[in-house]
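Worked Example 4.2. Consider the chain below.
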Amino acid sequence: MTHLKDRANHTTKLYWQKPYDTQFSARVAEVWQDDEHVYAVLDSTLFYPEGGGQPSDRGIIQLPQGMRFCVDHVFEQDGRIVHVLSPDQVTAAGVLKPGQVVHGQIDWDRRFDFMQQHTGQHILSRAFELVCNASTVGFHLGDDYVSIDLGVESVDDNQITQTEDLANQMVFSNLPVESREYASGRLPDHIRRRIPAGSDLVRVVYVGDFDACACGGTHVKATGEIGIIKINRLDRAHGGVRVIFRCGKRALADLRMKEQILDRVARSLSVGYQDLPETVAALSEKASGLDKEVSRLKKELLEYEIREIARQAGSQDTGKAPDFGSPGWIAGGEDFAVCRCEGKLPQELRYMARSVSELTGKTVIMFSQAPQFSLVVASASAQPGKGKKGKDIPPRQNAALLVSELGQIWGLRGGGAPQLAQMGAKEPLSLTGQRILDDIRGIMSKLGT
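Applying the procedure from the previous section yields the following structure tokens:
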């Protein structure tokens, strides 16, 4: 953490005195650096330091000879305003000297945006108090949106509309926004925000006679400059309600983006934007019906494939050579069948292997190479009527043992029970169909009858 030298004078806060100024001149009071940044304290500044939920200003500091330094962040410590200069300009520590006069310029677009958002937050917080009896217990001003946390469990849609209408009524009334300073022991009773302990002077921001709140931030001079306050959504946060909203230029940009999206969607559906809810609801219902129909047809196809595989596997002769170039083939022996079924999900392979094993009475090894390698073994001894538990299943029919043996050969890991086991990889195995079949036959021969 950065610590300042013990100096008697605090920085003069020009951002309170002249919040609409963008440039200023000041004298360097102190400069130092650490491994990452250079820090500069001026005797006065327009740069607002981060605090009270509002981010700091940004901009530049320029020497008389023209050398410029970017101000990336500003914070306050012990009454001094510290300007954090860009990390790639650490040479500033060797150029900036106490006593030098420098010229500063803030990023006005960023400053005015924060002024719109912050004053809008004061108005909206007061409106929630009046409409919902909901106090603001948290505030965040980000680069994209603003949020306040309300100390209530819920607010309904009607309350949101009333609050938003009241807030914008205050905007359209173009109320004056002023600030006054009070000794901490002489504050008016109507101040909305709690005062930090140890404060000697307290700055209070007034929005006409609508609101009075202790605040050190920057604000517009009249509410009409906010333009509009738009509540975007509500979230749950810390047992209360978080209100996401935007003001001024942010609200305009957000509304413009959403209108463009609505227009594109409406045009693609050949309807007016006001008809979109009914049109989308109808399309959603139709899509749901089609999904159900697709699921039904896929299940029918799966059952057909199971019956066809079982028919071929039940009569498969061990000497018959499979067509390894085909995406689906069947091979095996008297008591087991090896089936390649491409394009199947692991859960589909499990269902198919169990079903084929039940229909044929054979141990079934079923695998797929795409979209990734998956292999499932369903034991013949696990089928209804066999009456064998895991410990009673012969090694040749033990699914977990088969998967373990194959995993050792192929360098894969799998798992499961003697009745059903599986293994997989994130991509297809670089093995030919003949190699896979030969390895399986070798394991079956090794495990005996």
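The first strand starts at residue 12 and ends at 13. The radius of gyration is 36 Å. Compare this with Example 4.1 before moving on.
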